[in-house]
Amino acid sequence: QTSIKFTLDKSYTTSAGVYKTDGTLVRTLWRREPYSAGTYTVNWDGKDDAGNTLGAGQFQVKLLYHNVQYVWEGAIANTSQLQSGPHVYSGYLPIRDMAATDTAMYLVAGYNEGQYNLRRFPHATPNYPTNVGRVDSYTSFSLVDSDGTTVYMANNEGGINSGGTASFVYALKARDNSQVTFAAGQTLRLNGNYPDQTYASVIDLDQNSPRPASLGFTVLANAATGLAVQKSGNILAVAHRGQNVIRLFDKTSGALLRTISASQPGSLSMSPSGDLWAVAGGNVVCYTNLATNPTIATTITGFANPLALANDPTTDDLVLVADGGNSQQIKAYNRSGNAQWTYGQQGGYPANGNEVRNDKLWFNQSELGDITFLTVAPD
């Protein structure tokens, strides 16, 4: 046996091992053992970790000691109230869109790898989300809006590579999360007879929307690129950039009412009175008279790259636009299209460095679509 003597000036958590001169560990003597201040002698029986007796040679004994204590504080950037379980924010992709009602927020995250495709949280407890919707790997719900009674979602990425190419809108009742049955809806079965991949009633269905080949989760060519519902009126609007149209549906029956020709329409938002604001052709436009004869009442130009917009739910006279490109700012306008204020440094993070500041933004557009969104909740 070989005696090993060491001295500690105070209490430590210690580990010790025997090493060859080339640094190879041959025997772990102990791990994570607490020792108080003092002098100690321990014995090594000359064997390795496998119990084999080592021959004569030179060996080193290394003692590691520290007072580090580890405290689990949760995952980085996870603001959930809990650390695990069904009430934790998690997703395969970033949040893609949010919708506000008077009492709650809804969010979707696109393809979600075996997790729920819709979550809800009350305004009072934003760090305690609840799973609603369903788990379905053949869908990628990336747009959501609600009138407070019904939650509408648009599937526009088609799910996993081998999954469907169906673009469609379906809806849930806010009171109990049950699926809405549209009188003009269609049944959609995405993958055989699996119950969780069958939708009893969908609208705005394109079952064979071409899928670009570049990414598995790229927005389908004919898919929805904007979604907005009137809070007090009866119209649901769905934009399709690839087809240069905005379709207006009866939000209750699902019947197609009319279409609006628009240049590459994207993000949509409804004003409190039911006017439709849309990103289209690099501009922002406002349509009135949706129920009878949709007419452009306002056109706002001069953007770098408008990606998303949202209306103040309390007034018709304020619309917010997330302007990307070399702007990276939120810009506010009144109903007439006059600028009211701008928030954020010109150019955002790309132009002003990576120092974290509240007034620097970075809006993004990628092959996954316009992954920037704006949502305004009532106070």
SSE blueprint and pairings:
Elements: E1 2-8, E2 12-20, E3 25-35, E4 38-44, E5 59-66, E6 97-100, E7 104-108, E8 116-122, E9 130-135, E10 141-146, E11 150-155, E12 167-173, E13 186-189, E14 198-206, E15 226-229, E16 235-240, E17 245-250, E18 256-261, E19 268-270, E20 276-280, E21 283-288, E22 295-300, E23 306-311, E24 319-323, E25 329-333, E26 339-343, H1 348-352
What does this protein look like?
The chain has two domains: 2-66, Immunoglobulin-like (Sandwich), CATH 2.60.40.4070; 97-352, YVTN repeat-like/Quinoprotein amine dehydrogenase (Methylamine Dehydrogenase, Chain H, 7 Propeller), CATH 2.130.10. The protein has one helix spanning 348-352; strands at residues 2-8, 12-20, 25-35, 38-44, 59-66, 97-100, 104-108, 116-122, 130-135, 141-146, 150-155, 167-173, 186-189, 198-206, 226-229, 235-240, 245-250, 256-261, 268-270, 276-280, 283-288, 295-300, 306-311, 319-323, 329-333, 339-343. The chain is mostly beta strands. The strands form seven sheets. The chain has a five-stranded antiparallel β-sheet with strand order 10-11-12-14-13, with no helix packed on it. A four-stranded antiparallel β-sheet has the order 6-7-8-9, with no helix packed on it. The protein contains one helix and 26 strands.
